[in-house]
Design goal:
The protein is an alpha/beta fold and 316 residues long. The protein is built from 13 helices and ten strands. Helix 6 packs parallel to helix 7 and helix 8 packs across helix 10.
């Protein structure tokens, strides 16, 4: 889909198109992204293009794309590139999705093989138009990657599969990803304005169900800060995630994609991130990544190795 079509798709959702414009504040000196100019970046981009794939790196305008793609690490976004939700923090196009591409899982697997990935993250748009929310497509993608690259570890970052029964989550778990990630994104009080199509406790229950189906599967979740939350509400989210036995927490700075998205209320300092990291470890997470540039799939390969090591140490 070209950029003009994506702009039209975004305008179909009133919560993004009709939000009053707000000035995007100047970023502080501790938020700096590497420019996407390296040969590794260009090679990764070409492989993504050759296989006709979407990535959350591009669609969500991730600030880490220059660094990650220079190392050949792309996060694949399946189920198309148009979302049925209108989350006000997100830069992914909103509108009427395309028909499901049954050949997409095979193309993802081929790209993973060509990139030589030891660890791959697969995410998706929300597909509320599909009976299972796209869960079967995740299963097919996991299976295709396993066949092509059996030694590659797989991390899925799924939507919430809202209105789907527990069997839908079980099907994805039984496909055997190494990490099951689902982001809460923000504190419950901000859901009506930041994540209006979602339900906080449904997302929490999804993570609980993963562990219920497979207690040994690593689970992961993340939130953004700077949206208008306070510290106590962040600490409560940590407690809620630990009640669901989530292993790995990511905390990153929210960056406003356009003037019509949810405004940045403040930039959280590196010292505050370190304080949140200490608090999270104190609550029992096996691994915590908290920094201004942290994103769900940022350094996911290295973090997966740390996660396994942390579990082995805890069990020793």
């Amino acid at each position: 889909m070209d950029q003009d079509s994506k702009s039209i798709a975004r305008l179909r959702h009133p919560e993004k198109a009709h939000r009053p414009a707000t000035r995007i504040p100047r970023k502080p000196p501790w938020i700096r992204a590497r420019a996407p100019v390296s040969k590794g970046y260009r090679d990764t981009r070409q492989i993504v293009r050759d296989h006709g794939l979407a990535t959350v790196c591009e669609e969500a305008a991730c600030p880490n794309i220059g660094e990650c793609w220079s190392r050949g690490h792309a996060t694949f976004m399946i189920l198309g590139d148009i979302c049925t939700r209108g989350c006000t923090f997100c830069n992914v196009a909103t509108g009427r999705p395309q028909e499901l591409d049954i050949f997409e899982p095979a193309r993802v697997a081929a790209a993973v093989l060509r990139l030589g990935l030891r660890h791959v993250v697969v995410t998706s748009v929300d597909r509320d138009d599909l009976e299972d929310g796209g869960a079967a497509h995740f299963v097919r993608t996991i299976t295709a990657i396993r066949r092509k690259s059996p030694s590659t570890t797989i991390e899925v970052l799924t939507p919430d599969f809202l209105r789907c029964d527990a069997q839908v989550v079980r099907n994805v778990v039984e496909a055997g990803p190494d990490v099951f990630n689902h982001n809460l994104e923000t504190v419950p009080a901000l859901y009506p304005t930041v994540r209006p199509g979602a339900r906080y406790f449904h997302s929490l229950q999804l993570l609980y169900r993963v562990k219920e189906h497979d207690p040994n599967m690593f689970t992961k979740s993340g939130i953004m800060v700077g949206l208008g939350e306070d510290r106590l509400s962040i600490l409560q989210v940590m407690d809620d995630l630990r009640s669901a036995d989530v292993d790995f927490l990511t905390v990153g700075q929210y960056l406003q994609p356009t003037p019509h998205h949810h405004p940045v209320h403040r930039f959280v300092t590196p010292d505050e991130f370190r304080s949140l990291e200490r608090a999270a470890y104190g609550k029992g997470f096996l691994l915590v990544s908290a920094s201004p540039m942290t994103r769900s799939s940022y350094h996911a390969d290295e973090d997966f190795r740390k996660l396994r090591a942390a579990r082995n140490l805890a069990l020793a």
